Amino acid sequence: MDDAPTTAGPLADTARRLLSRPVDARLLVDGLGPAGRRVADGVELVDHHGTPLLLCDPYAALASAAQDGRAATLTLGRSGEESVQFRGRLQPLGRDHLEDREVEQVELRLETVHVRIGTARGVPVPLSDYHGRRDPHLTSYAEALRTHTNDGHAAELRAFASRLSGAADRVLAASPDGDSGMDPESVVASAELVRLDPSGTVLVWVDLDGAHEVRLLFPHAATCCQDLSDLLRHTLCPHG
């Protein structure tokens, strides 16, 4: 049998990386479904500052299990390669709006983290090491980036909000000749990022239909300042 690595720092980095880009996610909830069951369709896994966050239909069995505080195990990674196993209890965090649907936010409140490399046995990672593996400048940089985006890219934010809501398309459809003479961003009176963190951002805007708010999740959690910049840019300007 291979010797298991024993350095907590690199193992914590491995665990955080596997959560930020999950592969072969398998979720076992005590009293709910067979062992090894894959994360069900309609359930989205998000890295929320190193804590597994599951987004599901408010009436799904997973949401009910969270209300009961059931224990659960989340395993990420392919067998025989790198994998991580998170064990803890499900905790409901309330409902949120994700693009065009309402979701229940379910946190897996961690009690243990084990990393397995290849065929070696799983090695426990102290939670203090696991939660401490993040760029120390990321929080302050996120706030500076949010302020810069709001102050320096207001037109781009309004145009993005217009595309997201379809407001500009509705104005064009209502025009007799299909040309209202309005720029896409002019349909939106104001748009602003009110929150930016490693896992995503919250955009609010006001258009012809009133005030709106949406949570935009990144495909993975940012691990450094450059990663956060790239994720925000690709979210707001996917084709540019």
Describe the SSE topology.
Layout: H1 8-20, E1 26-29, E2 44-48, E3 51-56, H2 61-67, E4 71-76, E5 82-98, E6 101-117, E7 123-124, H3 127-131, H4 138-152, H5 154-165, H6 167-174, E8 190-197, E9 200-207, E10 210-217, H7 225-236
Antiparallel strand pairs: 1-4, 2-3, 3-6, 4-5, 5-6, 6-7, 8-9, 9-10
Organism: Marmoricola endophyticus
Protein name: DUF2470 domain-containing protein
InterPro entries: Haem_oxidase_HugZ-like_sf
What is the number of domains?
2
State the CATH architecture of the largest domain.
Roll
Helix-strand topology string = HEEEHEEEEHHHHEEEH
Q: How many β-strand runs?
A: 10
Task: Write the CATH fold name of the largest domain.
Answer: Pnp Oxidase, Chain A
End-to-end C-alpha gap: 49 Å
**Beta fraction:** 25-35%
What does this protein look like?
By secondary structure, the chain is an alpha+beta fold. It has 2 domains: 8-131, Pnp Oxidase, Chain A; 138-236, PNP-oxidase-like (Split barrel-like, Alpha-Beta Barrel). The protein contains 7 helices and 10 strands. The strands form 2 sheets. Strands 1, 2, 3, 4, 5, 6 and 7 form a 7-stranded antiparallel β-sheet that branches. A 3-stranded antiparallel β-sheet has the order 8-9-10. Strand 8 and strand 9 form a beta hairpin. The chain starts with 7 loop residues before the first helix and ends with a helix. Residues 1-6 have low confidence and may be disordered.
